[in-house]
Specification:
seven-stranded mixed beta sheet, about 25% helix, 14 strands, alpha+beta, three-stranded antiparallel beta sheet, about 260 residues
């Protein structure tokens, strides 16, 4: 499947599709926004028929830098600008000063955008390899996505990897979903204020996974890693399963009894 990339930037590691810009050192969130080609906004536009009759209850979302209509939404829809995602990331420094933006980009014509933040302070080594936790924000400009903020082991670089990350989130109901309504900004503030707790829990999750693995090196092909965040193994209520990606092509499958770890 095509990458469906509109714009893209990555820290150090090129994506498989070879598109976008690769930078060799971390930069601030707003600078990364510009490098990723996401320094544009959207606005509302009324919709009229060919006879200049306004269509009630609907409006178009226009990408301001190109004038391109991204889609049609209900009249109560409230846009969340790209800048808000990067401001969210910028504010995370109060909880983890080592956080860096790892990837960011837009899909299609820009109707879906994302920011992926790496959390180096929570990395966990397994032998010569390491588990790398991320936090991602995904926003849809035309009602195709709520604003989502959630932890993931998937390094998002394209449409496929975004689907993989969302599959795990949707399966286990982790993170936040913020609807495009009048209280969206308030909900984003609540999410930021809650992030410290989620960060601590995420660290405990990844540490539990790595500690349980010990020196084992059993690899499987998998799409994501979310069992520790609530998923239970079918037919085994005393187990939780995680498939934790810690490299470009490797994933560890772990089964952990509830009594083997404690959430912090």
């Amino acid at each position: 499947m095509a990458a469906n990339i509109n714009s893209f930037a990555s820290l150090r590691v090129p994506a498989w599709h070879g598109l976008g810009t690769v930078i060799d050192k971390p930069v601030g969130s707003f600078e990364f926004q510009e490098i990723a080609g996401l320094n544009w906004s959207v606005s509302d536009s009324e919709i009229f028929t060919s006879g200049m009759v306004q269509i009630q209850g609907k409006k178009a979302i226009i990408r301001n830098d190109t004038g391109y209509p991204l889609g049609i939404v209900g009249s109560d829809y409230v846009s969340i600008q790209n800048e808000e995602l990067f401001r969210f990331v910028n504010d995370l420094a109060q909880f983890d000063t080592e956080m860096v933006v790892e990837t960011a980009g837009g899909l299609g014509n820009g109707e879906t955008v994302w920011v992926l933040v790496k959390m180096p302070s929570l990395e966990k080594k397994i032998g010569d390899d390491r588990i790398v936790p991320y936090l991602t924000l995904i926003n849809g400009h035309i009602g195709n996505h709520t604003l989502k903020a959630f932890p993931t082991p998937i390094r998002i670089v394209c449409q496929n990897t975004m689907r993989m990350a969302l599959k795990g989130k949707n399966s286990f109901s982790i993170g936040w979903d913020i609807r495009h309504t009048s209280n969206a900004v308030e909900r984003m503030m609540q999410a930021k204020n809650s992030l410290k707790e989620i960060r601590i829990k995420t660290g405990g999750i990844y540490r539990a996974a790595a500690d349980r693995m010990g020196g084992e090196t059993s690899y499987v092909i998998a799409e994501g890693a979310y069992g520790f965040l609530g998923g239970k193994a079918p037919g085994a209520p005393d187990l939780r399963v995680a498939e934790v990606e810690y490299g470009e092509r490797k994933t560890v499958r772990i089964e952990v009894k509830k009594t083997d770890y404690q959430m912090v």
